[in-house]
Specification:
Number of domains: 1
Low-confidence stretches: none
Oligomer: single chain
Distance between the termini: 48 Å
Shape: globular
Strand content: 25-35%
Number of strands: 13
Helix content: 10-25%
CATH architecture: 3-Layer(aba) Sandwich
CATH superfamily: Vaccinia Virus protein VP39
Largest sheet: 7 strands, mixed
CATH topology: Rossmann fold
CATH class: Alpha Beta
Length: 251
């Protein structure tokens, strides 16, 4: 195994999904930099004594953030390679060598080692999530995943099954529905921008805040609390986040 990067110009810090502080002044160059909006999601400021799960962890920013906030035990899950994402069957046969790309786990492991993290990292699809596969957790976080799933309601049912106290769910916003009918549970199907071929961006759903809350109710969450709308830096998309409780809200 190669030693970790020691200089900021190391090319291994390029092309990440998340911008992550790795220690010793090194920062990965991510497509998104969540540091300025991390408090918009609804995570508890202190997670001391809590157990936490990061669903669809990618490079691991939110798993490491929950660890930084003091969580006693953090588990992070994601699929093992790009080809394991929830592609349309037609697209799955066409992605070729792209199928075996393991960028996310490679970056996660590098960040894990450089941060001297204790996060438990596992390969698991949200569709396989259950108390039998990963256990149950005080806090379950799921960010920017539902838009990429053909069956987001099934995913939320599975998230509900492993949530003991609260789930923090963020997803891409249906901007038009939010603006014109904020009280309606709207969902827009299909990628918001142009695709060279239908399905090639693996984006299926945009949701209004009320749409996300209604779906969480159908997934058997008892209480839902919107956290607000914000843009993912540096250039979007616009997102909405909801904190959901399986029972009454803790006092």
């Amino acid at each position: 195994m190669k030693p970790p990067p020691t200089k900021a110009d190391d090319p291994r810090l390029d092309g990440w999904y998340h911008t992550i502080e790795l220690g010793k002044g090194l920062i990965s160059r991510g497509h998104f930099d969540h540091r300025s909006v991390v408090d918009c999601y609804g995570l508890p400021k202190s997670m001391a004594g809590m157990t936490a799960l990061d669903v669809g962890t990618g490079d691991g920013f939110f798993a490491f953030e929950m660890e930084r906030r003091g969580a006693e035990r953090v588990t992070a899950i994601d699929v093992a390679r790009v080809g394991d994402c929830d592609w349309l069957p037609r697209m799955r046969t066409r992605i070729g060598a792209f199928d075996d790309i393991t960028t996310w786990p490679d970056h996660f492991r590098m960040a894990h080692a450089m941060r001297r993290s204790k996060v438990d990292y596992r390969f698991c699809s949200v569709y396989d999530l259950s108390p039998y596969t990963v256990g149950t957790f005080d806090v379950v976080f799921c960010g920017s995943l539902l838009l990429h799933l053909q069956n987001p309601l099934l995913a939320l049912h599975n998230i509900r099954s492993v949530t003991k106290e609260m789930a923090v769910i963020e997803t891409a916003l249906d901007i038009d529905g939010e603006a014109s009918m904020p009280e309606k549970p709207t969902l827009t199907f299909g990628a918001p921008g142009p695709e060279q071929e239908v399905g090639d961006t693996n984006v299926f759903w945009l949701m209004s805040t009320t749409g996300l809350r209604r779906m969480l109710q159908y997934a058997d969450f008892a209480v839902t609390e919107p956290q607000g709308i914000f843009d993912l830096p540096p250039a979007g998309p616009r997102a909405t986040s909801v904190v959901a409780y399986p029972h009454s809200r803790p006092t």
